[in-house]
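Ticket closed. Logging final result for EXPERA domain-containing protein.
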Amino acid sequence: MAGRRWMSVWYILTAPLMLWDAGYCLMRPRSMVGGDLHWIWPVYDFYGKVDHVYGVQAFENGDGFANAAAVLNVIENIFAILYLWFTHICPSEFAPLAGYTGSAMTLAKTLLYVFQEYFCGFCAIGHNTLSGMVLYWILPNLAWTTISILIMYHLGKDIQSAMKTASSLSTTTSPPSSNGLNKQSNGHARNSSSKCEK
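Final structure:
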């Protein structure tokens, strides 16, 4: 488990942030400047001027990209929460699959966000200075991309090892045991804990 602790820390730190971001998008215009809920998202008054996808103009023009990405944020975080649940609360061999799926969605959404901006000629961020673009847009997206890839790599290896173990066990006379599968999951629990039993 220690070898995967950094993944749990990442999910614990980023899940609230991503849900907060999704909340801003899905609660517009109430979350925007002048709205009764803007006090929850005051930083977006600034960030909407950095990235116009979050800005007033995009909302007034009916641009649905931010809201579509926000819905994906919610789905990604369901998988992140499932990973934490299956790893720390109700141990299950499904933990690697949940974490891998959530990170794959995060990676795909981030790349879509980047390529959409590239193919529109940097229509939402091109007005920034180079330093501002690097600090507020490039570095955050680089972080999401890099860490998502790292999580997919490590959990993908866990899943592959579990599949190999299951395949080898299926060739023996004894039925596959949950013990064999989970030893290859690098610390993901062998069986559901008693608190998770029906």
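The helical segments are 5-26, 44-50, 56-60, 65-89, 95-119, 130-170, 178-183. No further action required.
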